[in-house]
Amino acid sequence: LEDWEWSTDLRDYDGEATYGYDMLPYRGNAKNILTIGAVDDIPGGWTQPSDVVMSSFSSWGPADDGRIKPDIVANGIELYSTYIESDTSYESFSGTSMSGPNAAGAIHALAQHYRDTHAAQTALSSTLKAVVIHTADEAGSNDGPDYRHGWGLLNALSAAEAIDGDAVFAQRITEESLSQGERDTLVLWSDGNEPVVATLCWTDPPGTPPAWSLDPTDAMLVNDLDLRIERASDAFVHEPWILNPAGYTVAAMTGDNFRDNAEKIEVGVPQSGPYRVIVSHKGTLANGSQTYSLVLSGLGAAPQPPVASNVVFAQRTDGSGIVDITYDLADPDSPALTVSMQASADGGGTWGLATWTKYGDVGDGVTPGTGKSIQWDFAADHPGQFIGEAMIRITAADAPLIVVLGSSTAAGAGATSEEFSWAGLYFSYLQGRNPAAAVVNLAAAGYSTYQILPTGHDIPPDRPTPDPSKNITAALTYEPWAIIVNLPSNDVAYGFSTAEQMANYETVDTLAAAGGVQIWFSTAQPRNFPTQAQRDQLFAMTDTTLAVYGDHAIDFWNGLVDPEGMILPQYDAGDGIHPNDEGHALLYSRVVDAEIW
Q1: Residue 285 to residues 102, 209, 291, 426: CA-CA distances in angstroms?
Q2: So what's the pLDDT on residue 259?
């Protein structure tokens, strides 16, 4: 080494193949740390991505297995700091040795702020990492992360505000544990005015180091968690940002992230209404579970619905049969759009005696206040009938959210597009009455009554298991106004008896009732089965559904079926199973006739 000349001069990037990428030292590639890149100071504060100017010395990613590195960037240029000469000396320095301490000091302050606002609870390291990534300012020429700036520029103020927000609304930052085979779901609401953002981080177990080689691509991720946001109105799924290590400069896109133990989803222009935030996993979890941290913004609790209370009623003494009803109406977050009256003659067992509804801002019925009044002409509705005692209930609601459970017909099969399916037509109908109305369609092709049973329900060994993302348990997480079940013929195709189907319906109905949610069941639909026995079973299923559920049964049979139990040709999509556009239109009309809302 005697002939070598030491030099600290900046050198060109190592070859045109990398242009400075893939240059992180090995310590900076660790997956459970925060790797901090260095950028220039922004004296006036960040206003746009181009404000972030990369230093000439900061190393860039990715990690050899394609993970996003660095994690974030911070000021590392001419920082005024302590100096080694004495215990009172200060100097200005540049380097990642300055951006790292800069970020570390800010994150230490955030950790203390979390304790101060969360009853002395210490945040997990994954929580602090998630908060920092979640609130980082955009950097680089493209949206999303990149291999130069990571997830963006550290913004300690925004991070502190996220912690403050969690202290007010406890679901902003969550620390949970996901067990093998589980999926965690949160149903939250967007007001449509700010972006919806979710960030998931976890401290991953140690990976297996690969054999020595140049740039080994062996995946270091052990527990592969997945983050998704599902829009309730149409079940559209938003996926997290991903980068492709085969193209260092290629812009980030969205998709399945199977490399990083940090995932982030950004919905820049969300629709207002409910969303499901879902955390799940692939494969087998090391140690059987994985603790994770989730940070959310742009989502909050569901708007509080209007409330009807203090219901009082009395029959007039003039022999007219008119019942006078008074009630109070409050609207915590939004005004009532409907006020419905129902009466029961059997102590609340059934509520089919009467229904009175006012839609929109009509008259005095739906404006807030005390002493609202309704007059029910019992004699006109039930001529010649005598009821000794009755119960009356008043229900106020704003925009309805309807959840659909079912199989391929409910999912739109046979229609030329989802818009012309019965569920799509019904969604348009509801929106015509109230633009805030929503239909959450959880239907899936091939499903039977078993797949919609509650999560954890005991199932015979030769029957399908419930789908926790599309069953009655999932439906109730939306706190819907009502649920519609449309399972026309698959149970018969699979050889399940009518008694089985009705038992499964009873289980679903009982759980919905326990949650205070009304539920409607469609009858069977005609299907061109090869045997008359199968078609006869559809007849029987229709008759039983109509008999058991009465006003809460929707007739999808009569008018679509020929005498042999076949679907009428004018309604056949061509496969003998699904209705065409005309058939879906007929089914839609039956749903409207059910007066669900």
Answers
A1: 35, 19, 11, 42
A2: 98
| 434 lies in some domain | yes
Range list of β-strands (E), 319-476: 322-330, 338-344, 355-359, 369-377, 391-397, 401-406, 438-441
Q: How far is CA 160 from CA 156, 504, 575, in A?
A: 6, 49, 58
CA contacts within 13 A on the Cβ side of 147: 26
Alpha helices (H) in 211-290, listed in sequence order: none
Q: How far is CA 303 from CA 62, 149, 236, 374, 500, in A?
A: 43, 38, 22, 26, 38
* Residue 216, domain member (yes or no): no
Q: What are phi and psi of 290, to 5 degrees?
A: -145, 120
Cα(492)–Cα(537) distance, rounded to whole angstroms? 7
Q: Tell me the backbone φ, ψ of residue 475, rounded to 5 degrees.
A: -60, -40
* Strand-pair category, 225-231 with 273-281: antiparallel
φ and ψ at residue 499, rounded to 5 degrees: -60, -40
For tokens 């960040």, the residue is 46
Domain CATH number, residue 511: 3.40.50.1110
Residue at 242 is within a domain: yes
The enclosing domain of 244 has a CATH number of 2.60.120.380
Residue-wise pLDDT tens digits, 170-195:
568 999 999 998 989 888 888 888 99
- Extract the tokens encoding 83: 């100096």
Label residue 182 exposed, middle or buried (CB < 10 Å: 0-12, 13-18, 19+).
Answer: middle
Angle among Cα 552, 590, 379 to the nearest 5 degrees reads 60
72-75/36-39 β-pairing: parallel
Q: Are 124 and 201 in the same domain?
A: yes
Inter-residue contact 454 to 476 (CB < 8 Å): no
Kindly state whether residues 62 and 127 are assigned to the same domain: yes
pTM for this model (two decimals): 0.71
Give the C-alpha distances (Å, rounded to integers) separating 544 from 95, 488, 501, 538, 558: 76, 13, 10, 10, 14
Higher-confidence residue: 167 or 402?
A: 402
**pLDDT tens digits along 496-534:** 999 999 999 999 999 998 888 999 999 999 999 999 999
Q: In terms of domains, do 537 and 417 share one?
A: yes
Does the structure show a pLDDT above 60 at 6? no
* Domain count within the chain: 3
Handedness of CA 334, 339, 345, 350 (dihedral sign): negative
Task: Kindly tell me the burial class for residue 398, based on how many C-beta atoms sit within 10 Å of its own C-beta (0-12, 13-18, 19 or more).
Answer: buried
Helix orientation angle between 96-117 and 125-135, rounded to the nearest 10 degrees: 110
Opening angle at CA 456, ends 452 and 460, nearest 5: 75
Asked if residues 173 and 164 have their Cβ atoms less than 8 Å apart, the reply is no
Lowest mean pLDDT among 55-59, 394-398, 407-411, 481-485: 394-398
434 and 518: one domain? yes
pLDDT score of 407? 96
**Angstrom distance (rounded) from CA 590 to CA 65:** 55
